[in-house]
Amino acid sequence: MNICWEILGIEPTTDLECIRQAYLALLPSFHPESDPQGFKRLRQAYEEAQHWAASPAEDAKTEEVGDEHEILVAFRELLASERDRFQPSAWQKFIQQLNQCSMDEIDKLRWQLCDIAMKTETISLSCLALLAQRLNWQPQEADDDAEGEELEAFLETVKRGDAFDLLSLAKLPLVVQDQTDAYFFKLERIWRFYPEHFADALQVQGAWIIPDDKQLHRKLLHWFSAEQWGMAELVDIARRWQAAEPDNEDAHYYLCKQRLLCGEGESLLADLCDFWQRYPSTQADDLLLGWCRQHRPDFFPLAVMAVEARCMVDAEYVPGESARTRLLWADILHSGRLSPLGRSFVDSLFYKRKAMAWANSRLSTQGEPETPLLDLYRTAEQVVLEAFPKEKPFFRLLIRLEEGQACPLEALITQALSSKIAMKPGDIRDKKELAEELRLAAEKKLSSEAKTEAPRQAESGGVMKIMKIVGLIALIVCALNRFFHFF
């Protein structure tokens, strides 16, 4: 009789209520604090008895008859053992036991063992691969085509291995182990064969555990990023991955991707621009453009030009002419997210006014305040029109870039635009003069503000003195009143 029945003190039965009553009757004798080992044995016996009761009827019959080969019995016990079923060393030990059988016995047991494995719901495929290799399980011709296809599919699944290291579940309850393994096995299968239903599978499942396994973490990052799903837990996982492998492009990409999908704004920009510059790729382009669309739509048309400038390596290409660029411009133009200034910019690029018409451009008018964004628009439009940009807007951008005043996105776009502009010695001299002019203007502004602030401080100081005098007079009056009160 199986030892679990001896511990419970009952005969083997499929009555779950009978098993439960036996467990509850013994529970007071094995308190978790006073006798933890005894409690653990009792709990394990209870779970094994439940598992035995829920197993197929034919398994129960063969055990009752008692004529099953000891290897098959040992294999069933291995699969039912909470401690050993995921341990490669335990499977190696079982294989050594199998090696003691004769060749004739092994030939008889080969497919019986395979049949048991196929009927087991929770099983380590990585461990099972060791047994499959030892017994040389290979697809065979079968009388029933369906059975042959089922065997072939099973062996293919064994080759692929587990979705993650099942040993990472060791500290979890048995039921949670089974549920977690089944969930990720199903999830990986859906991703492989039915990717169009993957999002539905994620929505159906409730709360679930993420085992501490690097292989599974990589898969989850890939699956969720491909489906455009953000998850805060995956941001932490990707951050740990990048910390461990700073030069790993995938780690950097998935960290930026998940942060973007989770809605992170300005705090992501510097890392995003760094990734775009370090790892040129369409993935990096999509990340940058996706962030601009969400958080700075007026920079989106300019970012498209920066992407185009890097992709179009032909020296004869004209900025703004690629089909992708014009499609992206049209998309953002009709999205309704651009400001009037942004719409004017995109309109001017679509209608391709000639350089001589620049004087009539809505961007060249003085109605807008001088801002870095306006300077970028003016410079970009002139680059598209194949005319040298107006010196001051372009030079102001270069000065901000050199002095480190430009934000990462502005710096990235300025560098892309400047790569399409050939500066002459006279232009460099003019830029230096403008830089000096801007410096003097800034100093003058600071000096003016300081002079304005001084009278304010003096006035404030005078008011404070008056208030102190008034307060002192009030104290004196109060004291005199108290003095005359006694007379």
From TrEMBL:
Coiled coil: none annotated. Signal peptide: none annotated. Residues 3-66 form the J domain. InterPro entries: DnaJ_domain, J_dom_sf. It comes from the Bacteria. Keywords: Chaperone. This is J domain-containing protein.
